[in-house]
Amino acid sequence: MNFFKGISLGSCTYLVAFMVDYVVELFRINSSGEKITFLGLKIVTSMRENSLNTTFSLTWKVLITYAVFMVVFMLIFSAFRKIKSR
What is the pTM of this model? Predict the structure, then answer.
């Protein structure tokens, strides 16, 4: 049961970090173009005189950063669980 709690907590933590990364990059857009955020979200913006079009897509970097984050998080989570059980 604690294993699933660690996965849930790690996934929620990653989701919060992903959303913060998304919001920060979204408000930094000031011209047309393509940006890839730190966690791998691809933002393509097209600014015209009468419209603003923004397209979001995921890259492989999202999967890789999620996997690395979860491995590190689960190692830390299990270490704290072992310390707590002593």
Answer: 0.85
